[in-house]
Amino acid sequence: MKTVFITAGMCVVLAAAGCSGGGPATSDAQGHLASPVQLTNCGLPVGITAPPQRAIALEQNATEIMLSLGLADRMAGTSYQTDPVLPELRPAYEKVPVLAKLYPSREAVRAANPDFVYSTYTSAYAPDAAGSRADLAKLGVPAYLSEFACEDPADANQTVTFDGLFKEIRDIARVFGVPERAEQLIREQQSRLDGARGAAPSGAGQPSTGQSLLWYYSGTSTPYLAGHGGVPDAISSLLGVRNTFTDASQKWPAGNWEEIAKRNPDVIVLADLTRGGDGDSAQSKIDFLRRNPVTSKLDAVVAGRFITVPGSAMDPSIRSVEAAELVGANLRGAAR
Fold first, then answer.
1. Which of 107, 111, 239, 275 has the most CB atoms in a 10 Å sphere around its CB?
2. Where is the Fe/B12 periplasmic-binding domain (predicted)?
């Protein structure tokens, strides 16, 4: 599983965040919500009576959603930066205190005196990290968790959709009383998805038995690949191509090169990771694929049909649109 490489629990499923009822929550000139926000998030109630002013985002995906909603001035801290922050968000990011290189401890979280905590990954709420959401609730601090990574898998949606990501963005905007910012961000993201679909080969967006894509995340002796239900599956469906391992039950299964050789994908999509581990960078993957006796004979390797995307764009976040754009724009040239 992908969690071998990062402590963030990666069962990548983008899902609708919570059973939030009622209309959009807005705030008045004094910063009060017009009405309280009540969410059921990953099986726990989350109630917001006033827009948070000292929120903490526990990892980069949550941070970048908040920054994209213009909420830097409402943040008391961020943590767990895995990649350089998106250039357009850098000025806002530099205004937010960094609490820890990885996850902050419970003591560090409490010392920041937050009034809201948000994370994309379950592992952020581990005992050796921020502590459980239930414990934070006892302290009067509502905590939100993306519903593709609920503590109890039964509470989570099981399949990535971009609509699920948009629902999460709307939830966070409701919490802060800025629903109009969510709609603007979603329009921008949807426009980029439409452009990615348009740039792909004809038939994009329809079921396809044509081009097959191997989504290669990391590792060389044991490669970790995109299976069923994650961001790569959602992008493959959008673009009308086939994820080579969509039949795998896990979202990031451990593969083997002999099975990959049997399936002989048309195109290999490489995650470019900045961590510096085995098979993390795109170039290290290409070097390995070309020198390994089994993989060097793959049609995609012989023809150099590689597409490189930032590793973080394969995770459920506002960056996922970038992966769709890169793959869609390169598919024509990489196809047979």
1. 239
2. 54-336
